[in-house]
Design goal:
The protein has a four-stranded antiparallel sheet, with no helix packed on it. A two-stranded parallel ribbon has the order 1-2. A two-stranded antiparallel ribbon has the order 5-8. The protein has one domain: putative n-type atp pyrophosphatase, domain 2 (Alpha-Beta Complex), CATH 3.90.1490. By secondary structure, the chain is of the alpha+beta class. The two termini are about 25 Å apart. Helix 1 crosses helix 2. About 30% of the residues lie in helices and about 30% in strands. It has four helices and eight strands.
């Protein structure tokens, strides 16, 4: 990820990365530390804009989608998600399905508990260009923590490009 970020900074002039981490939920402080260090090395800014006044992460997700942000699921925990969720763009319809699945499975709808999924925003009204994922590999990662074993399906992105809207 760092090599790609450095390349995009040099070749495309990207100035920042923005994460969807939600303050007060999950491991946000650990993520903040990791991304700050990586961005410093790549000479780009790090932005974590989400707020969570209602303390309901589904409210944050609904607000993001309503603004035109387009996240795609790039990593899913197969303990909770079927493979059909991998690569799925989150929109008004899919977040309703996601909410129902999260409620059934007992996970956070935004994945903030570290059990469910990770996304990458490929387009937003705030972006000058949209992101197109080029080459990638399907990668399976088996993880064992003290509380459970997880199998993650990840989109290991090898190329990404900025495209005009």
């Amino acid at each position: 990820m760092l090599a790609t970020l450095k390349r995009l900074n040099k070749e495309q002039g990207i100035e920042a990365i923005v994460t969807g981490d939600i303050p007060g939920a999950g491991d946000v402080e650990m993520h903040r530390t990791f991304y700050n260090a990586m961005c410093e090395q790549a000479n780009v800014s790090f932005i974590m804009p989400n707020e969570n006044p209602s303390k309901d992460t589904y409210d944050v997700l609904k607000e993001e989608i309503s603004t035109g942000i387009k996240p795609v699921m790039t990593c899913i925990n197969l303990n909770y998600f079927g493979e059909d969720w991998w690569g799925r763009v989150l929109d008004e319809g899919s977040i309703k399905d996601l909410k129902a699945l999260a409620d059934r499975r007992g996970i956070d709808v935004c994945g903030e508990d570290g059990k469910g999924y990770h996304t990458m925003v490929i387009d937003s009204p705030f972006f000058k260009n949209k992101i197109e994922i080029g080459k990638f590999k399907k990668k399976v990662i088996k993880e064992k923590s003290m509380s459970e074993k997880s199998t993650w399906l990840m989109k290991d992105i090898k190329e990404a490009f900025l495209r005009q809207k």
